[in-house]
Write a structure and sequence with these properties.
heterodimer; A: 475 residues; B: 177 residues; 44% helix
Amino acid sequence: MHKESAIREPLILGHKTFNDVTQDVCKPIEDKAPRTWYILFGIALIIGIYGIGCILYLLGTGVGVWGLNKTIGWAWDITNFVWWVGIGHAGTLISAVLLLFRQKWRMAINRSAEAMTIFAVFMAGLFPLIHMGRLWVGYWVMPIPNQFGSLWVNFNSPLLWDVFAISTYLSVSLVFWYIGLIPDFATIRDRSKKPISKKMYSILSFGWSGRAKHWNRFELISLVLAGLATPLVFSVHSIVSFDFATSVIPGWHTTIFPPYFVAGAVFSGFAMVQTLMLIMRKAMKLEAYIHTKHVEYMNIVIMVTGSIVGTAYITELFVSWYSGVEYEAYAFINRATGPYWWAYWSMMTCNVISPQLMWFRRLRRSLLFTFIISIVVNIGMWFERYVIIVTSLHRDYLPSSWSMHYPSHIDIGVYIGTIGLFFVFFLLFARYFPVLPIAEIKSILKSSGESYKNGTNIKIKSKSELKKAKKSNSK
Amino acid sequence: MADKLIYAMYDDDDVLKESAKHLVSKGVKVHEVFSPFPIHGIDPIIGVEHTRLGIFAFIYGLIGLTLATVGMRYFMVVDWPMNIGGKPNFSYLENMLAFIPISFEFTVLCAAHGMAITYFIANRTLPGMKAQNPDVRTTDDRFVIELRASQNSNYSAKELEAFIKETSFVEIEQKEI
């Protein structure tokens, strides 16, 4: 028996030339923004401003405006923080880990996924800052000599590790993203006719010229930054999970947390990428670059990480029983059957059952189905954090202090507001930045473009080659 | 110093690579290649050495690790030992597990940013600098070889042009600086 491996599907559809790639990516930037962009931007801005209003009210009044009480001292604020950090995991994972594995399909999505990462981490960072109540002393988390006899920050505390992890992650992701953007800014700079945009993009492109030596350095720095960012991605959410795992609260105090959180983060991050990408490819006419195959690859990642998360949930349940610790066991019985059962079961349905549907090839290649699942997954992942945080806290060791958590309208306003702000940033990005890595896509055009793959290389033939062909014919 | 620059423009990366090979085989020194994306395999042909940025990144990483270790030892052990749950606060080694996350993060922070800054300085690409590519199309779909008369003193400019004309070029241009 003889089995040949199938030729992989092309990553770039249609007979694209180098110039076509430039045109396709630059067109939405150079054209006037469509009306839908203004409408969406307006909506996002209004929601964002409402959120900022809620934050200002919170800062003026105090953290008491949240629906917290003595028993539940942590609720939506940290839930939202972990949710946003989780979403912020896909971008760097796509560009760094997939770069190390030389997965070419990453190039269709890495730029916007990284942008999403950065904006999501902005939103995440907001929550610990406003949680301080006094935002203006936020710099106290840094080890700075001070007037209290140089009382340093506590380097044993996972909360401080978080400060370092999140700020390192944000700044390294930003640099990684920007270094990749420079050659593409140069492309836009060289195409633009209007003086203001020319000036802006020439500042942004740092005078990039595309010399061989620069490309050599560019490739190495991308590789090394990817190598550095890969363990960073895993460390960040591990450290976020230490915030809980190093405590002694039943339901939090589990060693499974770091891998479980990292898988969950990748899971929700990819879901968010799907949500954004499916809209973006349509709105910006990028169907040739982000097509069903890319969606399928991402769905497979969602399926795998979703299965890891599902396994973690079941392991947690098993260990809570097997450990024989009655407090631990109660925490989990209470999650599934207590007053917050609806949160637990929505989490279970959204995160464990829905990704399993991706085993069906038909479903994971369906764009509409993917879009719905991607939103379902993100709802599920929000509930996961809510379940872990609120249901573990609301019934503590002392039944007389058992309580329930009801979010105040400020809680809701701040959360919704960050979603608005996130979309404000993302829409600005989609309007003014190259959403696909132009240079990188050109470099895979010959190995993964449709015209080269299928041997129907008609249009892409360079002029010089045609000239040569003509010459030899006339001879 | 007056110098003559010859630019040969191509419309395909593989054609440029072949042409560069052709020129080099004639003993012509190719001064520079401008391209819209990295051309794999061009560096050995035109004699561009592999970058040493990686070594720099490693050194920056080591500096970060050292700073983090020295800093945390000073803050937590020497200057103001804190009693946290009775954990040992008098020795760095016994308490080191708690310091690993920040040591790692700070190593990555220093390596990544140090490398990025070195990259920008080595490239001479900083905010607001003027673009140096000879033609605006080199960031779109054109590939340019730059020859310098001063580096090819064995040949006249005419001879150099003749060599280029043997390749499948698209445009050719001369410039005096």
